[in-house]
Amino acid sequence: MKTKLATFLICISQLIAAVEINAYELLNEGEFYNFSFFTPNSTQETFDFDIRVGIKFSEIDLLDNGESYEFSLFENADSLAPFDSSTYSGSPRSSTSGLTRTISNASGTSPWQADLNGLIRLEMISGSIALESIEIAITDINGNFYEQIYIVPEPAQYSLLIGLMTAFAITCKRRSFSEKS
């Protein structure tokens, strides 16, 4: 029984490593991904912008020629309209591995500078991409700096992992109960 448990735990640790390495959210044509951010971590680094949002696509599916998406920034999840929106397209020269959108201090006081909250939306117009991570860097109204990188997991992989762990736990419990009877 202990050997089976050790083998299972090794398999689970390898599965967790694989899930973490290949974590992504696949967006297909017509689908969108909303990401709300709340107070990133304080940092000592200094920025010359109000906000920088970095989006990284997975090597599994990059933005290719003919594919396009719309990137929008909202003040918060309740906002009806974005205050910044841009459309990006893949070029015939190479696949695009992400984007960096920066709004500098010259743009005036940005809506998230007081509460450090906001919402990002990626909407696929054509094609597909695998979203891997989002980086947020903000300068607040007092000149303090905040930065955070968020990994975007694929929910199905984590659900599978949790399901396997639950099934194993139930099996172990039933075996130990039947051995005692």
Short recap of the structure:
With 181 residues, this protein is an alpha+beta fold. Helix content is 25%, strand content 39%. It has a single domain (24-152), classed as Sandwich (Jelly Rolls), CATH 2.60.120.
Which parts are unreliable, with pLDDT below 50 for 5 consecutive residues or more?
none
SSE topology string: HEEEEEEEEEEH
Number of helices: 2
The CATH architecture category equals Sandwich
**Total number of β-strand segments?**
10
CATH class: Mainly Beta
Please give the domain count: 1
Structural class: alpha+beta
State the distance separating the first and last CA atoms: 17 Å
Kindly describe this structure:
The chain has one domain (24-152): Jelly Rolls, CATH 2.60.120. The radius of gyration is 21 Å and the shape is extended. The protein has helices at residues 2-21, 155-180; strands at residues 25-28, 32-38, 41-42, 49-57, 68-74, 84-89, 98-104, 117-126, 128-139, 145-151. It is built from two helices and ten strands, in the order αββββββββββα.
Write the layout of secondary structure elements.
Elements: H1 2-21, E1 25-28, E2 32-38, E3 41-42, E4 49-57, E5 68-74, E6 84-89, E7 98-104, E8 117-126, E9 128-139, E10 145-151, H2 155-180
Helix pairs in contact: 1-2
Q: Which descriptors would you attach to this protein?
A:
Jelly Rolls, 4-stranded antiparallel beta sheet, 2 helices
